[in-house]
Hints:
Shape: globular
Strand content: 5-15%
Structural class: alpha/beta
Strand order of the largest sheet: 2-8-7-6-5-3-4
Largest sheet: 7 strands, mixed
Order of helices and strands: EHHHEHEHEHEHEEEHEEHEHHEHH
Amino acid sequence: MVYLDYMAAAPIxxxxxxxxxxxxxxxxxxxxxxxxxGEKSQEALEKARAxxxxxxxxxxxxxxxxxxxxxxxxxxxxxxxxxxxxxxxHIIVSPVEHFSIMHCAKTLERWGFEVTRLPVDRRGMVDPxxxxxxxxxxxxxxxxxxxxxxxxxIQPVEEIGxxxxxxxxxxxxxxxxxxxxxxxxxxxxxxxLLSLAANTFYGPKGAAAxxxxxxxxxxxxxxGGIQERGLRAGxxxxxxxxxxxxxxxxxxxxxxxxIRSLQGLRDYFIRELLARVPYTVLLGHPExxxxxxxxxxxxxxxxxxxxxxxxxxxxxxxxxxxxxxxxLKVSHAMLAMGVRSSTAQGSLVFSFGIHNxxxxxxxxxxxxxxxxxxxxxxxxxxxxxxLDQNVRVANSHxxxxx
Length: 402
């Protein structure tokens, strides 16, 4: 099997699994218990918290563990909205955010908050000047993602964070697609809140975190116990958190070499794909993009059809965000970028991981052109496009006096 869907899921590293295993069978005490057996779990939690904090330049007590990136994003938006609504009820987001931000923003609107959705350019990039122009006296929060999981564009969060800090507005960034993959420093980007998830950097699913700058007021989503400094009730998933800590430590050490390898595969794949499959366009920013992301739109065919044929050839990829892939809806991010609906329906996301090789890329490049051509041969849109092209060519060769 050739697996090119690392944005959707990645395997955990063997070292991560080994670190987690004892907390399933030997040290299964509740970290909130005051006896020595529970303290063993508490010590493991704090060790993992230190590793995760170190990954993003935070202090240990600024990390709140959650169950997933979606929970972290909901916690950031709703927790800040509830806690700061006496100051104002205006929130700013970009239109290319993950659904956990987009749907959360709609919920807040139903609760009486006002949401401004920024424009993006054709590469999915937010202009920091638009952020500054959108800020009002009653703005309490700006949320712009660090890297887009569908098209790969990396946002200018450092500049956006500076603008928010200068205007005394809180700044949250969804770094689920970037933390552990590329360098992320909460102080450098002036983030007040930042979401990250373990499965991005070869940790387990079910482990994520929200960075909350020390002293920031935020209201918990869940009512219950006093876990996570009273900010996230519920018994911690100790094995998963231990795995997240182990994966964070490894990611920090290996990040530079991983980036070099992934960029090499990505650039080779994009170059060859665009050369071998005509009527294919690269989505997202050509340079400011995730090192493991190659997002393209293949015109005149549906991405899901390509996925099925590629799957039959044992090559696994996706057509967009895994969270909504079964809905068959056109990507909201691509529509916000001005990509035509008909083109967006042919979107494919190839995302590479540390286990991929050039041989894997070559296999995908070998299979894809024939599959695309087979589908296009059955496409009335492609037939019409070729017909129109032939007419244009014939007209261009016709004598102006004939």
